[in-house]
Amino acid sequence: MERIPEPELMEDAAQALAYHEADFSVPHGERLNVFRRLFPGFLPDGDVLDIGCGSGDVLLRFARAFPTARFLGVDGSAAMLDLAQADIAKDSALAQRVTLLEAIVPSPKLPQRPWQLVMSHSLLHQLHRPQVLWQTICEHANRGCRVFVADLRRPASAEAAAAIVQRESANEPEVLRRDYFNSLCAAFEPDEVRGQLAHARLTGLTVAEEGEHHLMIYGVV
Fold first, then answer.
1. What are the pLDDT digits (tens) for 28-50?
2. pTM over 0.90
3. What does the alpha-carbon distance between residue 199 and residue 129 come to, in Å, rounded to a whole number?
């Protein structure tokens, strides 16, 4: 199936809220398990950058799992960041370690810090120009920084994408099912991502298939 790009930003407040209220406890909880498996023994205790943090569910799961690390979540959607900020405000301990920044990468707004970890979750498939993600990683991941990018993998056909949506999201609102289908159709295949990494000279990163329809791009720069 040819890739079908989708809108880059989820700016509609109702759409953002539907995404935020969806139950991602299983896949997002498993994301932490995958991270620990790919980086055994690594416990972030410095600065972590999350590119495309959305409404913050994965960001806050990592922040709770690594309580001595500091996190900066970056996203281009004010509607999503408002939801993330509301959740952060409920926990004073998180509020001291997690900050948010509205920006579209690449952006001069992103601070230069000795990032221990640069991560991104479900952003790559939204990008019309995927190189902006890898460019941002090149600019901000210093030598020795861990990189962890998790995203969808494009199914073989629209029918296969529809079957995944029906199996995994049958009880979700129509807006969420539609967005999930569009995201699957907009996702990249492993070899496409490897080509992107080669273009960005990030060939030290590994592209691995995870489960039926996810990709993990990870390594140390």
1. 678 999 999 999 999 999 999 99
2. yes
3. 13
Report the topology of domain 6-36+45-109: Rossmann fold (3.40.50)
pLDDT digits (tens, 9 = 90+) for 72-120: 999 999 999 999 999 999 999 999 999 999 999 999 999 999 999 999 9
Q: What angle do CA 45, 42, 197 make, to 5 degrees?
A: 105
- Three-state SS string over the chain comes to CCCCCCCCCCCCHHHHHHHHHCCCHHHHHHHHHHHHHHCCCCCCCCEEEEECCCCCHHHHHHHHHCCCCEEEEEECCHHHHHHHHHHHHCCHHHHCCEEEEECCCCCCCCCCCCEEEEEEECCHHHCCCCHHHHHHHHHHCCCCCEEEEEEEECCCCHHHHHHHHHHHHCCCCHHHHHHHHHHHHHCECHHHHHHHHHHHCCCCCEEEEECCCEEEEEEEC
Mean pLDDT for all residues in the chain: 92
